[in-house]
Amino acid sequence: MNKILCILTCCLTLGVGVAEAGADAGGGTGSGPLIAVFPIENLSGTPAPLKELAAELAVALKGAGVRIVDPATVDSFNERHWVRYLGGIDEKTAAALREETGADQVLISNLELYSEVFPPKFSLVSRLVNLKGTPEISWMDSVGIAGDDSPGILGLGLVSDMKVLSARGLKTIVASIKDYIANPPVRKKRVSAKAKREQQTFTLADLIKGIQSEKRLLTDPSYSRVKPWYLKNPPDKPYSVEDMIAETKANGGMFLSRYNPLLWYSSQDVLVDQERTIAIIPFFDRSTRKHAAELQVLHLAKQLVKDGSFRVLELGVIRDKMLNMHVVMNDGISLPSVDLITISLGVDLLLNGVVFDYLDTVGYGSAPKIDFSMQMFDRGNKKILWSSHSHNKGDDGVYFFEYGRLATASALADRMCRALVLKIVDSTKEE
After folding, report:
1. What is the pTM of this model?
2. Quick one: which of 179, 98, 97, 101 has its CA closest to 141?
């Protein structure tokens, strides 16, 4: 009898040890969610030391007190489940990862640029995805730095070592994650559009109201980002200090207006009164850079997450659904595809776009350049809620001593998408 009890006790102890091995071996003594760190996906188009960068990121997270799953446990999970796509996670894989490792969130990172040519350049995009229920992006940030960003006096601030530069970039990402865990964003409580839609009975009057023409807002011909400030107002209304303060607030900063869309249209439907979920479907890539469309989607998703007006569905879930449903888009998304995607994903809004140019520079040379357009569709009435075209270069608005010049396409995409999201939210809020 004693022998049987001893065997049972050993089995129970072994089971508890195996269940907790992932968290204990990973380290991190701080509080907060348990995070599984996925290997870094390479979207740079050039060779890069991905394993070394991933190991350095895990060590930095552990050193910052972030609770992470043992990297060996994550690698074993990926091998056991044949996980080959590391740029996102689908619902089935997320549920299995949560069940087998006990992780609350997964950290997905995409390497955008890794250039050792002097001055070296490094760009990385990372996001945290909740594993409970339908995966959604809870935090997202990026870093795009160059060795000559802050040369200082006599070039004393130049960075020539790629390892030093990448370590600085990873430190920025880790600091952002630590700040998110310590001070999680508080979302304004709003009625879920999905719950309201499911409770409301759809009538013929709702259909007529949805398809009738409403007020629309186009690019104001009296305002252009290329016009000097003193010509932005009509002749009978001088440009005042109050106008400058209002414009600065609306644009999110003193110089962000230079990254506003060149052309845009808004239906002015109120969208931020309810909690709505956005799905960003893959953009069309008509540029010469590999993975340009994926990178543009990542930066757009980042700014939507940071703004907090909408819930952003995990990109891997969208990719998996479209592959399973065999959705093929040749020149644009069709209305049947809008229905198919929004209903299967349970989202309220759909974003789609085209990338015409996504140029990064290596070493000294021309400034980065980005050119893209996007549209936003409503699930209910299939109406286009927003349409815009953005085009910028890294040296836009730079005249003296290269002050304000952007060295990477990552930094340029961030500012363009930030200005775009601010415009969308401002044009769809309640008066």
Report:
1. 0.83
2. 179
